[in-house]
Each structure stands twice: as C-alpha cells, then as structure tokens.
Design a protein that fits this description.
Elements (H helix, E strand, L loop, with lengths): L1 H14 L1 H28 L12 E9 L5 E4 L6 H8 L3 E9 L2 E4 L4 E4 L1 E4 L2 H6 L3 E3 L11 E5 H8 L8 E3 L5 E8 L12 E4 L3 H6 L16 E7 L5 H19 L8 E6 L19 H42 L4 H32 L4 H4 L8 H26 L4 H6 L11 H33 L9 E5 L5 H9 L4 E7 L9 E6 L7 E7 L4 H4 L4 E4 L13 E5 H6 L5 H4 L3 E4 L3 E9 L14 E4 L7 E6 L5 H15 L8 E2 H9 L2 H32 L1 H9 L4 H35 L9 H28 L3 H5 L3
Parallel strand pairs: 6-11, 8-10, 17-22, 19-21
Antiparallel strand pairs: 1-2, 1-12, 1-13, 3-6, 3-12, 4-5, 7-10, 8-11, 9-10, 14-23, 14-24, 15-23, 16-17, 16-20, 18-21, 19-22, 20-21
Helix pairs in contact: 1-9, 2-8, 2-9, 2-11, 2-20, 8-11, 8-20, 9-11, 13-20, 13-22, 13-23, 14-18, 20-23, 22-23
Length: 797
C-alpha cells in the first residue's frame, strides 16, 4: 500500500511541477535554518556527558546582592567553601575546586598565553579525565606542578617528552610538567589548557603573587566548587547544608543575610545547556538561548508549512474530482488521508536533500558559518538520523491539515459544482496568515537594516586613534627593544611602539585606583604602553607628556590618565593633574605625567570610561608598526620576516593589519549575513504564501472574471479589482510591522553608548521594497487570468 502511495505521489508531483518546485524550495529554505538549530542543539546537549556519576555531582553557585538590592547568581564560589563542606558533612563523598588564573607561559624559547586553572588531585576522580602520561595520584599533589593538554604540550615542546620540563608563568612562578591530559571522550564545560596544583596557591598568596583568597569568604569570584554526594543522598541535604553555611557566616562576621553570599546547587548534567550565570567558564550553551532558537526555527518552519497548505488548497480544485471519483469507487477517507500525507512526506524528504545542500554551502562558504554553525559537530549517522526524523515531522506538520481537508470532500459536491467549494470556512484564516507572514518579514527587514547601519557606523566611526597603515606583530617572547630597533630601520616604517593589547577591544585589565590614602578605590581599565605609543596611535595629550623614560622592568613610577579618569578622581583641571600621585591596589604610588583627551578605546557598546596607560615592559605583548601609505607589501613583509628571524628564530612570524582585524572584530559580518539570509527567506516564504492565495483566488473566481469581461470590463479593470484586495493585506501588514520594527530597532540601538538614528529611510525603504516584491509576485498570475478568453471559463455553463 505504501509503495502504491509513493507511485501516485510521484505521478501527481511530476504533473504539477511548478507547485512541487515552490513547495520543495520553500520547505528547504526553512528547513536549512532548522538544520542549523538542530546542529546547535545537538552541540549544546553534548557537553558534560562523559563525567562519571554526573547525576550526583553538583556545582555550587553563589547568590550575591549589591547595595541597590539587586541579586546576581554566579557560577563561582568562595575557595574556603569546599573544605568546609567536606569537613562538616559526611554525606559528601568528594569535592574539587578550580581556581582560574591564566596568563603568559614560557619554556625559554616560546611564550604563549594559556588558559589555566589551579585544581586538586580529586580532579581526576570527580570529572573522569585521564592522563596520557604521568601519574594521576601524584601529578597535582606537589606545589608548582602542572599538567597540560596534548595540544598545549605540543605547542610548547613539539615532539619532545614534556614530562619534567619547566614552564615559567611570570609572577605565578615556575612549574614542572608532571602530566599530559588525554583527549576527553566528549565535550566538557571544563576546558582549560593547563591545570596547576592547588597546593601552590598558599605560597603565591604569601609572596604576593596572588591576592589572598584561600581563606577568604568575601570573594566569590575566583573559585569553582564541585561536590559529589554519596549514594542514596538527596540533593536537598546539600541545599540545607549550604543554608547552614550561610547562617554560620552571618554569625561569624556579625552581618545580615544580604551582606553574605547565599548558595545554591546546579547538577553537573544541567550546566550545559543551563541557566545563564555570571562569571561562567567554558563554552556550554544557555537554555534560554536554546529555547529561543527552537522557537524561531519553529515559527519559520510553520511559515513554510502554511505555504504548503496554501498551495495544496490552491491545487484542491484540480484534485477534488480525483477525490470524488476515488470515493465513488470505494476509497475510504483514511486511505485518501494516507495518500496525501505520503505526498507531503515525500516532498519533505526531497526538501531535506535540498536543505542539506543549503547547509553545506552555508557551512563551507557563507560568512556567518563560524559564528552560527558549530564547526566541530560532525555530520555523522546520529545527526543524519536526527535530520531524517525532523524531515518526517515536517512532512506530517505540513501535510496534516490539507490531507484532512482534501480527504473530506463529498463526492456529490465536488462532482456537481466546484465553484461552491469552500475550505477552512473561507479565506479569512488564510488572509490572516498572509498578514502575519508579511508582518514578520517586514519586522526582520527593519531590524536587519538597523543592525547593518549600526555596525557599519561602528566600523567606520572615528574612535579617536588612527587605524590606517598600522601593522600588529605579536612579540611571542621576543625582546621588544631589539625587535623595535631592527624594524624601525626597515624602509617603509614610520613609527614603532609596544603595548599590551590593541585599542578598540577589551582593555588589558582593570585595577583599583585611589587619589589619596583616604579616598575610595575605583576600578579603572588599563593598557601597558611604551613612550612612543601615544604618538604612534595619534592620541591627543591635553596636558603633560608621554612617559619620561623607557619602559621599566622594575617598579612603576609613572602613569597617564584620560580626562574621564581625571574627573572621576575629582582633579579640577588637566594642568593640576600633572605631578599628582595616585595609588594602585592601595600600595603602588604612581605620578601622573600626562592627561589624554577621551577616546573610544573599547567598543561603542560601552561609554568612555576611566583609563590608565601604564609603563611595564614585561606586560608588552605586541608591536604597533606604523607604515607609510605607499609601502610595498610584497617587499615589506619579507623584510619584517628577516628582522624577526634575527631576533626570535624559534617562533613563526605572525602579523595582521590593524584595520582588517578591527573590521573583523566590530563588523559582526557573520550575524549580519545570517540576518540578511533570514530576511530574504521570510520574504520569499511570504511571497510564496501570497502566490498560493492568488492562485486559489483566481481559480475560484474564473467564471466571475469571465462574466465581467463579457459585460465589458477591460484588462485594467480586472487587474485593479484583483490586485487591490491583495495589496490591502500588505498595507495592513505594514501598519502592524512598522511600529513593531521601530520599537525593536530602538531597543537594539540602546545597547550601544554611541549609536545611529534609525531614520525614516529605513522604515519607508523596507516597506516600499516589500510592497514591490509582493507586486512582482502576484502581477504575472493576475495578468494571466485577466487576459484569458472568457469563452474558456464560461463554455460549460
């Protein structure tokens, strides 16, 4: 029977090539987005699935309140919490802490930034990680021991056995490599590149390498606490224990409940996708975003399924007599329903093939692939099975309603007079869906145009420094003085400076600043820069000078601030700021030598905030090389490579043009391209739905049109009659969508401290463009009906 249904489906679809093509293309467009969402969902739910006893393992999260009474939930917790729980509650089988503290590491020949954390020997038991080499029982026991991932070990030591080798991590000291982690069997939200022994931390706190945190409950931002419960222990016991800990802290520090952190638990298996928490680690998904993606994909899929329904209704007039004859010959409604559902599923399977082609193109060639399509989700059998199930679901969703309607035709009605045939109580329902489709399309178009305008402005705006003809060279452990001197003598180089990071992104760090001993500490962003940085970046000094000496490797003595910092520090004028002393972290006095005019050193999402330029050569990570505008890159880059090899022959030469890197960081080209794809897709689906309604309407009004032409109506009058009703739907959609799009655009723009105005042009242009597309969609079909000879539609009367 099923084979028979497929044969009939193939014959019917081959006879109606236009409808079949429209249905397949429309479903494939929407399914391609749904396939991306399925890949992202599969990726989100693949985290933390290999950890042993995940259902009995919990991460402790912290609830803190600010002075305004707002509560924040953090993925981190105070470091003393784990020992306290282990000592006082016997139902806890094991605990482990992670203390994130990455930075630069060097093996003497190569310097790289690594994402590292301190942890304990129980790390292996709790999380199930295995060592490729080394002893898991002792690898993290001794102070100053460290284990590396295979990739990190290869980056530092190549094919050399890393066990016993030494890594230097600046103020965090030197570490002996005691193990190499085996690649985990799955993904985990715990994905540091190196793990150092927690027993190192106490010594670092004593010598000032790390701030005091091991015994300090007031800092919930540094540690991550995981607890394994014994068998047959309910999670409620752990919750009650955490409540008791909070009560003990209140008594110990003699404070109110709002002044001590509260604690909650989160199952290891529900971290990804899970609740969005502050201070999170890893790349796991957020359950809110996952549900939002599912909702968006479902709305788009429903839009495509509606088009299938609409086009099926339009074809119903040609299928009605077929249904009537089959019923007269004894076919039951269930058999006819099965036949139409089979056709729908068959079209969905064909659409899946085309959607997969779209997916591959988007994954391999589209500019938004890296941002939105997970690159590490293989197209394996499990994913193929998921796609196939989704295709069957799509076929059932799209075909159920038309199959139920078409199989319900009464033979007497359809064989006697098709003109009286009504489906779904007339056209009001379908008109409403057309309005909804075009409303959604116009809102997406308006939002996309606003998004593009804002990010175009962010890329091309004046940030207060010069982005042109600037080359960035990562130092990778090279001596910046020697390298600067060599590069400065290369033809085409105008200026060379060193800094800790490039402007225009995130600052290098933050520090506590006070104007005097009794002042209130203020957190301020900072960069480290040499004496040539201000001139090279073409920043404007309002008072004072750049650093008076070369970058110091010892104690800092000088600092440069921006105007915003001067105002925050309550220094009346720029001139009065010069020579004043400020304190960093309550202990480091620095003399202000210059005041900079405010400039955007961060993204336009943030307002201009207080900024310090510090002067520590050990913090420099890159060179800023300003070239002349006429430099010949074909000869210039090889000259840079030669200079690099003379200073640091063990490291490959790396460079990037600042403007290109700036554009990649601020243009959001991936998200912009995907929004454009969504806008084009929703408009296409809406136009297909409109086309289906036009076909249905013109088919049911053929005789009316024939009579009007016989009575003297011209082609222009017929065109006006038919077009007017459809344009009303577009205008109604516009009246609904324009205020919604305006609100959405304004809400989006208010994310940015510096933003564009939406303007009338975006709203008017979006609406006129959509109206023109709708006219193009319906004009040919209406014109074809309007010029039809009335004899053809009236000859059976």
């Amino acid at each position: 029977m099923l084979l028979h249904y497929f044969k009939i489906a193939i014959r019917n679809l081959s006879r109606q090539r236009l409808f079949t093509g429209i249905n397949i293309f429309g479903l494939a467009l929407s399914m391609s987005v749904c396939l991306i969402v399925l890949m992202r969902i599969k990726d989100d739910f693949s985290y933390d699935r290999f950890h042993p006893d995940a259902d009995h393992t919990y991460r402790i999260i912290t609830e803190v309140s600010n002075k305004e009474g707002n509560t924040f939930r953090l993925a981190s917790s105070p470091l003393p919490l784990a020992p306290d729980l282990k000592a006082n509650y016997p139902f806890i089988e094991n605990t482990v802490r992670l203390y994130a503290n990455g930075g630069k590491a060097s093996n003497g020949k190569k310097e790289l930034y690594i994402n590292a954390a301190f942890t304990e020997p129980s790390f292996f038991e709790v999380f199930g990680f295995r060592l490729e080499s080394g002893d898991p029982h002792s690898a993290l026991s001794a102070p100053n021991s460290i284990i590396l991932t295979k990739r990190t070990a290869a980056n530092f030591f190549g094919s050399i056995n890393p066990i016993g080798q030494t890594l230097s991590m600046g103020k965090l000291g030197n570490y002996q490599v005691t193990g190499v982690l085996r690649d985990p069997p799955g993904k985990s939200h715990i994905d540091f590149e190196a793990y150092a022994s927690m027993s190192t931390v106490a010594g670092l706190e004593k010598n000032g390498g790390l701030p005091a945190a091991l015994d300090h409950w007031e800092n919930p931002m540094v540690g991550y606490t995981y607890v394994v419960l014994r068998k047959n222990t309910h999670s409620g016991q752990l919750s009650r224990a955490l409540k008791q800990v909070a009560e003990r802290l209140m008594k110990k520090f003699n404070v109110t409940a709002k002044q001590v952190p509260g604690f909650d638990i989160q199952s290891l298996s529900k971290i990804s996708p899970g609740e969005e928490l502050g201070n999170s680690i890893g790349r796991g998904g957020n359950i809110g975003k996952t549900m939002a993606e599912i909702a968006i994909a479902f709305v788009i899929l429903l839009s495509a399924c509606f088009n299938y329904t609409n086009l099926s209704i339009a074809r119903s007039l040609s299928r009605a007599k077929e249904v009537g004859i089959r019923k007269v010959n004894g076919a039951r409604r269930s058999q006819l329903f099965g036949q139409f559902i089979t056709e729908s599923v068959f079209i969905a399977l064909l659409s899946l093939g085309l959607a997969y082609v779209f997916l591959v193109i988007m994954r391999d060639y589209a500019p938004f692939s890296e941002e939105l399509i997970p690159s590490d989700v293989p197209l394996d059998r499990s994913l193929a099975g998921l796609f196939l199930l989704f295709s069957l679901f799509t076929g059932l969703l799209a075909g159920a309603l038309p199959a139920w309607a078409l199989s319900g035709f009464r033979p007497v009605q359809v064989l006697k007079n098709l003109s009286t045939l009504k489906l779904f109580g007339g056209s009001a329902f379908r008109k409403g869906l057309i309005i909804a489709q075009f409303t959604l399309s116009l809102v997406i178009i308006i939002f996309t145009m606003t998004f593009k305008k804002q990010f175009s402005y962010m890329v091309n705006a004046d940030y207060g420094f010069n982005k042109d003809n600037l080359l960035t060279i990562p130092l990778q452990g090279a001596d910046y003085r020697l390298l600067s001197d060599k590069i400065a003598h290369i033809s085409g180089v105008a200026l060379v400076s060193a800094s800790s990071d490039n402007l225009g992104g995130s600052a290098s760090g933050t520090t506590s600043v006070k104007a005097m001993l009794t002042g209130t500490p203020i957190r301020m962003n900072f960069y480290d820069a040499d004496s040539g940085f201000i001139t090279n970046m073409q920043l404007k000094l309002l008072a004072g000078n750049t650093f008076h000496s070369g970058a110091t490797t010892g104690t800092e003595t000088e600092v440069i601030i921006n105007e915003n910092a001067r105002r925050i520090l309550q220094i009346p004028t720029t001139a009065e700021a010069i020579g004043k002393t400020i304190l960093l972290e309550d202990s480091l006095p620095l003399v202000i030598t210059g005041v900079l005019q405010d400039f955007h050193f961060q993204s336009f999402e943030s307002p201009i905030t207080p900024l310090l330029l510090r002067n520590r050569s050990q913090a420099f990570s890159l060179l800023n090389v300003r070239t002349v505008s006429s430099v010949n890159t074909a000869t210039f880059v090889p000259a840079l490579v030669k200079a690099w090899k003379g200073i640091n022959p063990f490291q490959p030469f790396k460079y990037s043009w600042f403007r290109e890197e700036f554009y990649a960081r601020h243009s959001a080209v991936g998200t912009s391209s995907f929004l454009s794809y969504l806008a084009a897709m929703t408009v296409t689906l809406a136009c297909m739905g409109l086309l289906g309604m036009v076909v249905y309407t013109t088919e049911t009004r053929k005789k009316e049109i024939g009579i009007r032409k016989v009575m003297g109506a011209g082609v222009a009058a017929i065109l006006s009659l038919l077009t007017r009703n459809f344009l009303k739907l577009i205008v109604i959609a516009g009246l609904i969508a324009l205020p919604i799009g305006l609100i959405c655009g304004q809400l989006f723009l208010h994310i940015f401290a510096a933003r564009v105005e939406m303007g009338f042009g975006i709203l008017a242009g979006s609406f006129i463009g959509m109206l023109a597309l709708a006219l193009c969609t319906i004009s040919f079909q209406i014109y074809r009906v309007a010029i039809t000879n009335p004899v053809e539609s009236l000859r059976t009367e």
